[in-house]
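Action item from last meeting closed. Structure (766 res):
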């Protein structure tokens, strides 16, 4: 009976057809389990002629009601009064998604008599979970397969399907309403990726292929095995004398009905693990083109096929079959954290094409991103860097990241986090990639080293051309494996990816004086000798250098063996791992409410700062102002480079904040600790004046027995910056840590383990 297309449903409603009427038992259950809160908003999915939507509106909800049949919506609107708070929307929740909905979140989401008609239920449910307000409910009202005639099985859910529906919710209550199951779901549960086996295999099933196939929108096909309780890829064992690719193509058609050719399949890797003490080999095969629509062809093995968003796979409520998870991880390294161990033998195929629809959307977003970067001044129109940005498919390096986010010019997507949530790997924001590549001044035929692997290597390869050399180094095998996979997939086979310590590896990978540019895409606390030594005379080092806790991307030029720089771009990066990582010296005050961090120099005595904070505050406002959208990062550098010791950064824990300290706007506060006292720089908004733009004034708050002297010192430096250095950047030279004071140039010296940095604010700007 079930219709499968919008046209069929539209004809149904145009001919006067409808759903089963809303019963009293359903009304009572909704009133009991989903009463409307104040200003409650509800979503009715598959609203038909609007009976449920009108009932929810009468119950106190503002309702968004959607259906993909225009005839249904026309009848619904005709039967709905003008003052009824219902908005009808022509929208297919499965294909269009919830992006076009008027409200970002809902107190109640209802799907009445329609869930059985949704094919990709797992993907749709994941999207709806994200649209549910805390404390809200998602309600599915459905016929049950055991209570309907065999000819109407496709309008109902069986017990297995109801179990899948309820997975991933802390609360899943089921009620009966005159033969209909009313399932009320609350409190979605976050789950980590899980893998599961299927029991002891027979010996002939220990070699086989897993097939990754994606639809035109880049969604991956997975099948649900009710017998084994796992989601899995299409695939299976290879027959005698059959290679892995042929087996994958054959199994795909036998299991799903999708027809592909051997030439449209790529063998990416062979994976080896064991099950019940028996070695197992699985081939990871990527199918890039196919014909047909997925259908259940072997119901004893797979009961349903669904297209799922790759981003949803790490939080599936049910486990993935372990070999399928390993195959997915081969295609999209890092997407599924915490997988069981496996031996992976990679094979480098030709570049793998992506679905045409996804490629077209990505290309459109890529050009929009480049246009924005040109408009904002980060790219020069007509430059080789602009061409590279329009060419490199950035999203292919970011599996699981929404296309819009992948091409957001200002976003740096995190690709890996430590157990505590701290980012350990990310991909630089496009605006910053553009700035660093501009500062590196790459040309055709150049030799380039990148520290911190990622899509920057592909951009660099575009700029140096086929006769140039790009080497990408990272200490984390997760990052290098991931980068190598994506470079291969996108055709950048000439980039050399090296697993090693970025501080030392350049010394072994390149002869001294042979590298034209070294680009560091992780935060560095120092500049090791290997970086300087490998550069040619006139070569460029572009590095996010941490100076007293603040990070600037600085382009250095090697001149007479010395690194020199005059430009600074404030930025943020994950820190360099390995021996190059040096933690801040951290002091927590007032039970953790206040944290003081010393990043460079010698930390001063902080033992009496708790007592200082108990004293009355001294305030000093400088009269120095700045516009609300004007950066003042150079003031931070000015302050940091005028103290030999005692300079720090101060933060206040938002959860423990007692209001003692006024927190700085958008920054850690630049802080000076001296003589058992503490002072920090902050801003306050001045009264609005219609004659000018909004202004903020710099001031000092200080505590302790010498608070006034400390406030005067900091205020004097802020005033001096305003008078003499507001439009300046210091000239910076980098010298060996062994270089004596007597032979250093004039300026403030900041000592680090490898180097001595000299900042000269009195130089003549070139």
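Sequence:
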């Amino acid at each position: 009976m079930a219709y499968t297309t919008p046209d069929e449903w539209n004809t149904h409603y145009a001919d006067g057809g409808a759903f089963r009427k809303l019963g009293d038992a359903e009304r009572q259950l909704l009133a009991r389990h989903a009463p409307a809160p104040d200003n409650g908003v509800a979503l009715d999915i598959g609203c038909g002629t609007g009976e449920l939507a009108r009932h929810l509106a009468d119950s106190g909800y503002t309702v968004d009601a959607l259906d993909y049949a225009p005839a249904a919506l026309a009848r619904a609107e005709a039967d709905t009064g003008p003052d009824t708070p219902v908005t009808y929307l022509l929208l297919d929740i499965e294909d269009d998604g919830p992006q076009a909905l008027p409200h970002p979140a809902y107190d109640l989401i209802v799907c009445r008599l329609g869930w059985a008609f949704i094919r990709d239920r797992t993907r749709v449910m994941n999207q709806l979970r994200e649209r549910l307000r805390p404390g809200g409910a998602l309600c599915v009202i459905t016929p049950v397969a055991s209570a309907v005639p065999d000819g109407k099985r496709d309008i109902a859910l069986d017990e297995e399907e109801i179990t899948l529906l309820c997975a991933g919710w802390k609360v899943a209550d089921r009620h009966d309403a005159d033969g209909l199951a009313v399932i009320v779901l609350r409190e979605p549960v976050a789950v980590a990726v899980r893998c599961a086996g299927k029991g002891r295999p027979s010996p002939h099933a220990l070699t086989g292929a897993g097939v990754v196939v994606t639809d035109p929108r880049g969604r991956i096909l997975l099948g649900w095995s009710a017998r084994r309780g796992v989601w899995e890829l299409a695939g299976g064992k290879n027959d005698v004398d059959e290679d892995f690719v042929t087996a994958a193509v054959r199994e795909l058609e036998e299991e799903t009905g999708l027809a592909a050719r051997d030439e449209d399949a790529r063998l990416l890797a062979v994976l080896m693990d064991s099950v019940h003490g028996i070695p197992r080999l699985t081939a990871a095969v990527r199918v890039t083109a196919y014909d047909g629509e997925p259908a259940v062809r072997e119901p004893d093995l797979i009961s349903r096929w669904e297209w799922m968003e790759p981003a949803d796979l790490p939080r599936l409520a049910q486990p993935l079959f372990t070999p399928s998870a390993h195959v997915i991880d081969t295609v999209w390294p890092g997407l599924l954290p915490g997988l069981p161990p496996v031996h992976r033998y990679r094979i480098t195929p030709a570049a793998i094409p992506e679905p045409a629809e996804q490629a077209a959307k990505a290309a459109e977003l890529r050009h929009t991103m480049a246009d924005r970067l040109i408009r904002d001044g980060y790219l020069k129109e007509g430059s080789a860097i602009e061409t590279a940005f329009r060419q490199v498919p950035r999203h292919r390096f970011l599996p699981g990241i929404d296309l819009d986010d992948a091409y957001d010019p200002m976003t740096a997507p995190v690709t890996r986090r430590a157990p505590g949530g701290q980012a350990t790997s990310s991909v630089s924001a496009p605006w910053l990639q553009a700035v660093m590549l501009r500062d590196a001044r790459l040309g055709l035929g150049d030799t380039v080293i990148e520290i911190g692997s990622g899509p920057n290597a592909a951009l660099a390869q575009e700029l140096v051309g086929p006769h140039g050399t790009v080497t990408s180094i990272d200490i984390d095998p997760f990052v290098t494996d991931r980068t190598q996979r994506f470079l291969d997939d996108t055709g950048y086979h000439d980039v050399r990816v090296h697993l090693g310590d970025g501080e030392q590896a350049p010394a072994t990978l390149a002869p001294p004086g042979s590298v034209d540019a070294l680009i560091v895409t992780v935060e560095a606390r120092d500049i090791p000798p290997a970086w300087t030594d490998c550069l040619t005379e006139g070569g460029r080092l572009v590095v996010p250098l941490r100076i007293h806790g603040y990070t600037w991307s600085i382009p250095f030029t090697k001149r007479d063996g010395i690194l020199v720089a005059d430009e600074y771009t404030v930025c943020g990066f994950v820190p360099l791992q390995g021996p190059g990582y040096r933690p801040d010296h951290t002091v927590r005050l007032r039970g953790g409410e206040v944290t003081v961090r010393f990043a460079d120099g010698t930390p001063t005595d902080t033992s009496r700062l708790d007592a200082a904070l108990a004293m009355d505050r001294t305030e000093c406002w400088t009269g120095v102002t700045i516009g609300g959208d004007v950066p003042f990062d150079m003031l931070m550098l000015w302050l940091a480079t005028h103290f030999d010791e005692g300079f720090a950064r101060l933060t206040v824990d938002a959860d423990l904040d007692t209001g003692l300290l006024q927190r700085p706007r958008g920054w850690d506060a630049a802080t000076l600790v001296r003589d058992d006292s503490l002072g920090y720089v902050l801003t306050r908004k001045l009264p609005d004046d219609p004659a000018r733009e909004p202004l903020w004034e710099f001031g000092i708050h200080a505590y302790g027995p010498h608070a006034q002297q400390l406030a005067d010192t900091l205020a004097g430096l802020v005033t001096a910056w305003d008078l003499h250095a507001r439009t300046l950047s210091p000239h910076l030279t980098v010298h060996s840590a062994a270089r004596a004071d007597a032979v250093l140039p004039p300026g403030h010296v900041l000592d680090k383990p490898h180097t001595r940095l000299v900042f000269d604010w009195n130089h003549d700007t070139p």
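Note appended to the action item: Residues 356-375 form the longest helix (20 residues).
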